[in-house]
Amino acid sequence: MSHVINYRLNQFSWAIAAVLFLPLLFTKGMFFDGLTYASIARNLNEGMGSFWMPSYTPYIHPEFYEHPPFSFALHSIFFRLFGDQPWVDRIYAYTMYGLSVLMIRRIWALFTPSVHRAWIPQLLWTLTPTVIWSHQNNLLEAPLSAAILCVVWLLFEGTLKRNYIWSVVGGLVFFVALGIKGPVALFPLMTLPIMAVLYPEHRKAALTSMVLMVFSFSLLFSYFYTYEINFSTFFNGYLNKQLFPTLLGNREQSGNALSSLIEIAKQLALPLIVFVILRIRSGHAYALRRESMFFFALAICGTLPFFFMDRQHHYYFMPSMVYWMLGFAMLLEQSPYPWSIQRKKWVTVLSLSNLGLWVIGIGLSIYFSKSPSRDKHMIRAVEQIALNYPSEHVRIETIADYWDLCAVGARYGKVYFTENTDVELYLVSETAVVPSHYVLVDTFKKFPMLLYKKTALE
What we know:
By secondary structure, the protein is mainly alpha-helical.
């Protein structure tokens, strides 16, 4: 009976994901970073920019060096398959979620015989707030987490099964992971050294896998840097315009170590609460298993470096959260309670719950399909400008004050904003003083800005 309950709980973990993700599937509106990345991917599909020289707008990052292009290229394939639809952005992110879950389950199966309980880390990870938010908003952390999990799984396969071809493939996938968001993907390099320390029986295999992985990555990187001129051009631009200035503290500075600690505490609140409850109910202590120590150590390697950066956001910690959850899951799984419950009624309760959650998720998805999930008045204003003034660019006073507007304009209307005074259209706040040679041409419902156009006399 416990196996039947675990089967239903596996289904329950997917039903929870359906409720969290499906309602936003067909809606417009995301965090402006996600809109930016979606616009770049669409531009790639439409021939605006190239793989090694992606482009955002004609005025903002016409040559985009902020992040490597691998995620944008992969996202552009979804535009090619499904067309320029708003829901393509979330389909892409949700596909990355599915890939991550597959890797979580494969990793779990390598470290515990209780394969039927793979729902435990999946459910803990799915309910982590930053995981939900990152996938809902098409953040680069979604494909980055999936790629890093692939690397870690391949290294485990190569080491634990002594089939080193997997380690070689891991080096190739590691190149892809770095090609999504740069050095933040480096922490999987600690996977095998930690394994060599905690698992002496696999020490030689771990070091062999490490050498082969680094060798295959270095060979691939050297080839591209030596023979692909566009790659070397982009790589040098990325180092000089984004990475070095960021590391030197010359870019945006936000957050601090204290706020990051608070955010991490929020992310880890659920597994800690579950641990305390099960510890009290089971009546005996949990031993700190070697598997848990391993994944906790890997999680720390993915978490700690961000505390030394000038720019800290909660979603930066998202790729390391899966290893925290695997560590807690390995810790919780060792106790017979509550996994050995034999109550038949739980099968019926879980079956009805799963069905109900799927119905709710699909129903909300249909209900919200015509309504933007955020910035709805801004989105409707941009769509109004795109409809009334197709292919025209719009001046705003200061781009730095309207990053979200620029992202919404680029993604949902191909309305490109600039500070250039040569363009005819001028969008300003309702309280702004406008020069006399501009005439009011459009207003927007519940959006506190007005659209002006230069007069013919100017």
